[in-house]
Amino acid sequence: MTGIGTGIVLRLLHDGERDLEQDLLAAAARHRTDHEFHHVALDIARWSREHAARLADAGRDHGLDLPGPRGNPSPGALAALREKASAALGRRPETGLLLLNDLRELHLAVARNSLHWEMLAQAAQAGRDDRLLALVTDCHPQTLRQLRWTNTMIKILAPQLLTGV
Amino acid sequence: MDTSADRITDVWGSRTPYGPGTSWPPRTDTHLAAGLGERDVERWVQAASVLHSNGDAMDIAVREGRIVGVRGRAADRVNRGRLGPKDLYGWQANASPDRLTRPLVREEGRLVECDWDTAMNRITARTRELLADRGPGSIGLYTSGQLFLEEYYTLAVLARAGIGTNHLDGNTRLCTATAAEALKETFGCDGQPGSYEDIDHADTVALFGHNMAETQTVLWMRLLDRLEGADPPRLVCVDPRHTPVARRADVHLAPRAGTNVALLNALLHEIIRTGRTDRSYVAAHTVGFDELAAMVEECTPAWAAGICDVPAAQIERAAEIIGSAERLLSTVLQGVYQSHQATAAAVQVNNLHLIRGMLGRPGCGLLQMNGQPSAENTRECGADGDLPGFRNWQNDEHVADLAAVWNVAPQTIPHYAPPTHAMQIFRYAEQGSVRMLWITGTNPAVSLPELSRIRSILAQESLFVIAQDLFLTETAQLADVVLPAATWGEKTGTLTNADRTVHLSEKAVEPPGEARPDLDIFLDFAARMDFRDKDGGPLITWHDPESAFAAWQRCSAGRPCDYTGLSYDRLRGGSGIQWPCTDETPGGTPRLYTDGIGFAHPGTCESYGRDMVTGAGVEPVEYRALNPHGKAMIKAVEYLPPHEDTSAGYPLQLITGRTVYHFHTRTKTARAPELDAAAPDVWAEISPAEASAQGLADGDLVQVTTPRGAIRARLRTTAIRDGMVFLPFHYGYWDTPAGHRPPGDGPGRAANETTVTDWDPVSKQPLFKTGAARLTLVARRANATGARTTTQGSGS
């Protein structure tokens, strides 16, 4: 059995993971010359992609029609242009502040997803929905890892980027 | 006695076979300048090798104030008298006519000779100006794995408590950072668990990405002698190239580059599936086994075969050998450390030993190897991304303790974030927030990835670069101040090898011209800067190597790398000694973790760990919850596809590596005639099948191209896996007309023109062994000769 609220949270989380994947890919392209950020962002965008797909599956159990992750991001002309631009501008000091800004926005987006996973976990337990609980158990730890990553990156970079420019 | 004439062709010399549990017989290797015999030698001066990480002990032969040869020290536990080719011939570089003998400063774009006062005043003036205008975060220091302990420790004190910068790292970031990080992740603290003597006892030796035959020739001699003796050990080799190790292996697995985690997860799967887990060891000494078992449950050999392109039956066979071992020794090196998911893979080797209970007993050894002679000292002295004495920057008590040792306020020592790693220091320099970079004993203009980027960073007007070296390296040519340094044989100090053996290396001859020991340069800088402690006394209270060693001993007291039982006198005359060495363990400590896990307690550990995929830091409270009793931590990791895979445009996997005849960027080895002649120029290796598919032959001039750049090299076909190209990374430009860069706008010969800027998010070690490239013909070889220039050695 599903409450209306569970469906709402499922949809919100699905949309949140779907957007987070896109946000991570876009930020990775913007910061081509911050190499660790770039590569890890791409790696963990994969987690959000998988979450969105699994949430779309779960949605069907709950009578929802959720589209799942966006079509495979093609390395199209726009993305290539964005990467070229980021490589060309990568030496400018302001890119550091832009990176901090992106990390903060990503952190807030991940925190929102994490809270929705928390709500789903509680709803699943209250509603004795074992399949939903198993989904949360698989996915929420990865969201928490995304959250720790953005926090760690801010902690490491902020002292230099805020005082050194 | 082995004084065989040609150790270029006969790299490992004659065999002295021995059986399990017996001691390795001595064999004294000697090489003297042509025409000289031992009776011509006036003095023998004790030293140890600085041309690899093995820590081979030797005596330097001196005649008429010059070095005239070397002889291995038969009494030493590490090499029992043996020396490899680089040590037998490499000493000649000391007397090379192009040694730097005076400081240089840049005037109107050109480097010109000056006196020490001029050079040092320029450095202190810039330091003061930056400290006043921009703060300590504008100053970065990039050091080496080839100086002495006393020098790193002094550098760490003056950087962290004098200047107050968080930006101090070593080129050990490129060679050994993953070893340190993997040990921290598993055992909470750096510190090599095993001992070279484990070779004497092992019934099985597994080498993961470790071409021991070329990188640690003397250790390989030890293993060869076991293989030739009674009851030899079984060998498992993981390497995409058919190395000398692979030729002796019972099982050789040659995986695709970047797939180590998949392979290791399958090995762990098999060990668990076949019931080879030591359950009582796991229960007593570890946390995390259940998570590992769950993670690898699906990682069957068939699954890994699809990713690694290695037959499943071979993976099963390797797992059977490792699973049935009673005394397992594993070694790990750059095939793991410089590849995708570096720390994650190295940690899985630790896991093999934990779940099999193979630690702390003779033959049950784990050697996370180092790449450089004093990399261990860079790590323990806090010049490589940690605080001195393996202190934990996140632990306020550790910081307070260190501050007490230095007599400074704790807030003097930056500890608001992890010490900045080398790749990030270069990024800050690229962005303009680091304005001064002091480079000691390393050559980033050849050794770092994506050289066009590195050259452009070093050449920036806004960056003041100091290069301290023996020669006018590619990096020195881009510097604003060049300081001539003394080297091995010209200065005294200690160095610690990959199995924690501390050696003393003493001054035998005077340095050339005005060249000075690195320690003297650092002490001079500190004196000119007038760094003070919190009571107004001098921050640095020592004045020579022995007093610096004593200061380090106080800093190491009570920490895992405790040196308090050592002294220069104790290190003279006999064998090197393994730390920890205290009043209770005056003979040193052969193996760590003989009685459970020693340094992982939350109050003791050097690091609380990092996420194996993202590198995110673990908070102290999480660590305490995960590991309250300080056990070894079994960490499970999922396989991730490499960041740069092959494509239609770049169909080959690119890996870089090394040859037995050269060390690093050849600054010394190319100045030893025998070594230079053995491997005079860069080459590119592909398999015969790959070559014939492209219609190429040995000796053809080919171009290797990646999105970063291109190089040209002669083609050599070898038994490397298909679909892969190998380049040795040693070759730069100092001995070419262009000096520090490729000619004109054309392709160069430094492998790092082509490598990708990407590093392991956990250890921050750059990935030199996971890229994609294409190989094209430039010109057919002119004639039938000259296709092969070397003999035994081919690389690692």
From TrEMBL, chain A:
It comes from the Bacteria. This is Uncharacterized protein. It comes from Streptomyces paradoxus.
UniProtKB/TrEMBL annotation, chain B:
SUPFAM superfamilies: ADC-like (SSF50692), Formate dehydrogenase/DMSO reductase, domains 1-3 (SSF53706). Residues 1-26 are annotated as: Disordered. GO terms for molecular function: 4 iron, 4 sulfur cluster binding; metal ion binding; molybdopterin cofactor binding; oxidoreductase activity. Residues 42-98 form the 4Fe-4S Mo/W bis-MGD-type domain. InterPro entries: Asp_de-COase-like_dom_sf, MoPterin_dinucl-bd_dom, Mopterin_OxRdtase, Mopterin_OxRdtase_4Fe-4S_dom, Mopterin_OxRdtase_prok_CS, Prok_molybdopt-oxidoreductase. Keywords: 4Fe-4S, Iron, Iron-sulfur, Metal-binding. Pfam families: Molybdopterin (PF00384), Molydop_binding (PF01568). PANTHER family: NADH-QUINONE OXIDOREDUCTASE SUBUNIT G, RESPIRATORY NITRATE REDUCTASE. This is Anaerobic selenocysteine-containing dehydrogenase. The lineage of its organism: Bacteria, Bacillati, Actinomycetota, Actinomycetes, Kitasatosporales.
